[in-house]
Amino acid sequence: MMLLHRRLKGRVRTRARSIGSARRRSAAALVTVTACVATLASAPAGADGAGRPAYLDARAPVAQRVQDLLRRMTLKEKAGQMDQIAVARIQGDCEWSGGALNEACMKTVLDDYAAGSVLSGGGMGPQKNTPADWARMVNSVQKYAVEKSRLHIPVLYGVDAVHGHNNVLGATVFPHQIGLGATWDPGTVRDSGAATARAVAATGIDWNFSPVADLARDQRWGRYYETYGEDPLLAGTLAAAAVRGTENVRGAKKVAATVKHFAGYSEPSNGHDRVPADVSVRYLQDTLLAPYRSAVEAGARTVMVNSGAVNGVPATSSRYLLTKVLRDQWDFKGVAVTDWEDIRALQTKYKIAADYPEAIALAVNAGIDMAMEPYFAKDFTEGLMTAVRRGLVKEKRIDEAVGRILRLKLELGLFEDPYVDPGEADEAVLGADRELARKAATESQVLLRNEDGTLPVPASAKKIVVAGSYADDIDSQAGGWTIGWQRVPEGVELPGTTVLEGIRAAAPKGTDVVYAAAADEAAEQARTADLTVVVVGEKAAAEGEADSPRPELSAGQQALVKSLKASGKPVVVVVLAGRPLALGDAAGTEGLLMSWLPGTEGGHAVADVLFGAANPSGRLPVSWPKKTGNEPMYYQQLPGTNGGAESSYDAAYAFGAGLSYTSYAFDSLGLVRSSVRAGEPVQLKVTVSNTGRRDGDLVVPIHVSRPSSDVLAPAGKLVAFTKVRLEAGQSKTVALTVPARVLAVTPGDIDGAGAPRVEGGAYVFTAGGRKAELTVR
Ligand code: BGC
Ligand code: BGC
C-alpha cells in the first residue's frame, strides 16, 4: 500500500470527485508493463539514420542539440518540460491508489500535457517492490515518453534515495545524513553517494534528490537527521563529497545529484517544518549559504528550493536567492526545481499570487526551471501558457529554463540510453555495498561516555543483558524515508541486522546474551549481569511528523534506564535517534553511545564498537542539549551579556565530542606564514600522535577565534578538519588550508548586507589545546 500524505489526500480526493467520471473511464486501460531491452530503444521511433534531426545526433555538441530541439518545440511542449509529476498520477486510478502504470493517464500527463519529469516521492513504487520491478516501471514510463511524445524526449525520473536506495525493498539502507556527519569523513560520504547512485541507476532512475545541505540548528525540527549537522564547513564539505560521489560513478548510467533545500530551510522560527525563517542577511551569507555553495561548486547538476519563506519572501519566488545568489554569484548552470507543490503554495498558502498562472510567473521569473507539481500536469502546462499570454512571463525565460532541462537530459545520456536492463537490477541492488554501509555506520558511532573503561566489553564478561524495545527494532533503526515516506510500512519486513542481533553475532563464545524486553524483567536480570546494554530511541518519522517540541527520551525510557542503574552494575545506553535527546534520568550511566539512524547494517556497527572490533572515531556533528527547552542549540552561538550558564553555550556534549579506545595528543600547531593579506588562504600544520595501545582514526579539527572583532564572532568556529589514521604509537604531521572565504564576515551595522570580507587583525587558531596566532593585514 502506498503511503499517503494526509495533508494532501483530502485535496486530491475533492479534486478527484469533480473529474471522477473521466478518470474512471481512463482507469480501465491498464498497461501491461513490458520489459524494454536497452538496444531496441536506442533509436527513438520515427528517427532514421540519414534524416536525423541534429538534436538526435550524439556527436553534435550539447549546446547545438539543445538549440535544435528548442527550435522545434511548441510553447506547450516547452511548458510541459518544466513540469514534474508524481508517478502516482499515472498508476492505478491515477488519483493516488498506486498500482500498475495506466496508459490512459500516461497519455494525459506525458503526451497531452507533455510533462518532462516524473518523481517517485516517498513510497511511490511499483506494485511489487523489487529492483527489477522498479526498473521495468521506470523503463515503461520512459518508453512512453520516448515513443509517444511528438519529439521523443525522454523524461527525467527523480527519487529520494537519501540513505541508500531507500524505497526499494532489499536495498542496503545507509545511515541517515546526521550519522554520516558524525563520521567527519568525506571519503566515506563520497563512497556512500556513489554506492547509492549505482543502485539508483540500476533501476533506471536518473536523478537523486540528495544531499541535504541545510544546517541542523534546532533539535525540535523534524528534518534535523537529514542534515550533516550544525556546522557550515562540515556540512558543506560532506555535501560536496556526496555530490561528487553521486555524479562521478564510472561505467553506470549517470545520476544527477540535488543540493537541497536552498536556502534557509532549517531555521523555522518555531521549530516546526516549513515554517518561515527570519534570518539576518549577515547570518544567511556567513552561515547558512556556505554549505549549499560548496555543494553547488562540487558540480551539482540540480538544486531544490526551500519550501519555506525567508525574511518574508518564499524562497520559491525569491529572485535574490534563485538568480542573484545562485546564478550571478555562484555561476550555477544546472536546473533549479521547486519542492513539493510549492508554486501552488504561492497562491494557496502564501497568498502572494491571485491565481496559479500568477504564481507560476512569480516562480519562473525568480529563477525556477522546473515545478515539482506532483498532481496536475494540465494545470501547470496550461497555467504557464496562460502566464505567457497575459504577458507575465517572457518566452525567453522559458527557453532558458527548458534549455537547462534539455541539457541535463542530454548530459545524462538519456537520448542515447533511456533504458536499463531490468534483468540486472536485482543483482545490482539487493544487499549491495553492505560492507560499505557497515563501515559508514561504524564510523558514525559516537562514544560519549565510558566511565572506568566499561567499554569495550571485556572478554571475561559472562552475562550481558540487552534491554529496551529499540534493541530489536529494525524499522526505527532505519528511520524515516525507508520503503515508505514516514517509515517502513506495516507488514513490510526490512532485511537487516538489529542491535540485538549484532550483539548476539559479536559476543564471544562463553558470553551469555539475555534479551529482556519487558522493563521489570530487565531490571531483575541486570542485577546478575556483568553489563547491561539498553537501547533507547525515537520512532521513525519524516518531515513535519518528525517535529518534536520536546526532544527528549520518553518518560518510560528514562524510567527503564533509571531502574537499570539501580542494579549497581554497569549500564551502557545506546541511542537510536535522529537528534540528541535530553536524557533526564537516563543521564550518568557508565557508557553512552550515540548511534543515530544507522540503517540496515547498524546492528553490526554498534556491536563492533561495543566489543572493540572497531575503535570508535565518530564525533558529534551537533551539540547535545542538557535539558529540554535548551533548543535551538549550536556551538557557534554569539556572545551575550547574561552570565547564566544556560544563556551561553552550555552543552551536555559539545559539538565535536567523541571518545576513543586509545589516547591522542596534539603535539604542535603552526602557521606556514603568521601574517597574510586579507583574501589570502591560511596554511597550517598540525602534528598529532596516537599515545595509546590501539590503532585509531583521529578527527583533527581547527577552530578559529577572534580576540577582538568588528562583527560579533562566536567563541570558536570550525575552519578546517581532516581525519587521520594513526597506528598505536604513531605520529603524523598534516597540512590544512583555510580558504579566505571561510573567515569572511558580512560587515556593517544591524542592516549589514554587503559582500562578506575578511577583517584585518588577530586570529587565534586552535587544535586540541594548541594555539597559533595569525595577523591579517
Ligand atoms: C521534501 C523533499 C523531497 C520531495 C520529494 C518534499 O516534501 O521536502 O526533500 O525531495 O518532497 O519527495
Ligand atoms: C511529501 C513528500 C513525499 C510524498 C509522499 C509529500 O507530501 O512532501 O516528501 O514524498 O508526500 O507521498
How would you characterize this protein structure?
This protein has 777 residues and is α/β, with parallel strands linked by helices. It has three domains: 363 residues, Glycoside hydrolase, family 3, N-terminal domain (TIM Barrel); 203 residues, 3-Layer(aba) Sandwich (Rossmann fold); 113 residues, Immunoglobulin-like. The chain is built from 23 helices and 24 strands. The strands form six sheets. A six-stranded mixed β-sheet has the order 11-16-15-14-12-13, with helices on both faces. Strands 4-3-2-1-10 form a five-stranded parallel β-sheet. A five-stranded mixed β-sheet has the order 18-24-23-20-21. A hairpin with a 2-residue loop joins strand 23 and strand 24. The longest helix has 18 residues. The N and C termini lie far apart (64 Å). The N terminus is likely disordered. Bound molecules: beta-D-glucopyranose (2 copies). One beta-D-glucopyranose binds next to loops.
